[in-house]
Amino acid sequence: MARQQKTIITCAITGAIHTPTMSDALPYTADDIATQALDAAEAGASVLHLHARNPENGAVSINPVDFAAFLPRIKQATDAVVNISTGGSLKNTIEKRIAPALRFSPEMCSMNMGSMNFSFHPLARRFDAFKFDWEKEYIENSDTYIFRNTFADIENAATQLAPHGIKFEHECYDVGHLYNLKFCMDIGLFKAPIFIQFIFGILGGIGPEIDNLIFMKRTADRLFGEDYRWSVLGAGGAQMGLATTASQMGGNVRVGLEDSLFISRGKLAESNAQQVAKIRRIVEDLGCEVATPDEAREMLDLKGGDRVGF
């Protein structure tokens, strides 16, 4: 693909991996999620990738009520694209995980392109005490978790969400997920241009080496030609380095406290906006322009913020 002129910055605000003990900056109340999302948009994020949390204890939530507590505020205060997770929980069925998307009809949703081991259990050893009772067991037991998205699950979600005109952030944690996506396109589940998020560094997925990024992109070029746009998510310490490399390869970038709690080695980020500001500075210093929300909509062929349900 030809080098694009603008770089889309996605910010993933809170996610379903990190827990409140790991960082005081991780938002879990509706007010904090909304505030950090708006600050990230102000800092340069044109896409906001959103999960919900239980406002009482920070536990993962896929309850549409918890999304409703912050989505309208974000919509009223920014024109950034809202992207709702259809992952959100490692333990629930696809029917439950797409409930927020069905209710709120956002411009974008994430879509994991396959089932996989998905673990973060080594993080439990880093903490002697936890803020909330649920955290330690949740983290330790992740070595038993399988994130399920079978072909039937993917078809189910794509079919139910099709009437909403939602564009997917196709999350590919390994090269096989690219072939899964190609199969799904061939049977008509998704239409070009597709948006692929290459994900590196999750325990259970492909490792965060630049060689793997090059391999994933070369494979996507072969499978999808001019029919795709792409972005990179590097987990943990791989976040900024891989994002920088991706921007110089003509790709888009994703940062945020869902993916990494740090701003530099050994230093916790103060906010999502701090990470956005850093990658924006790097991207611009290296000669790229950052896309506005409307430019992102055009690049990704989105339906527009006036057609969401919140």
Automatic annotation (TrEMBL):
<keyword id="KW-0808">Transferase</keyword>
<keyword id="KW-0862">Zinc</keyword>
<dbReference type="Pfam" id="PF05853">
    <property type="entry name" value="BKACE"/>
</dbReference>
<keyword id="KW-0479">Metal-binding</keyword>
<protein>
    <submittedName>
        <fullName>Uncharacterized conserved protein, DUF849 family</fullName>
    </submittedName>
</protein>
<dbReference type="InterPro" id="IPR008567">
    <property type="entry name" value="BKACE"/>
</dbReference>
<dbReference type="InterPro" id="IPR013785">
    <property type="entry name" value="Aldolase_TIM"/>
</dbReference>
<dbReference type="GO" id="GO:0046872">
    <property type="term" value="F:metal ion binding"/>
</dbReference>
<dbReference type="GO" id="GO:0043720">
    <property type="term" value="F:3-keto-5-aminohexanoate cleavage activity"/>
</dbReference>
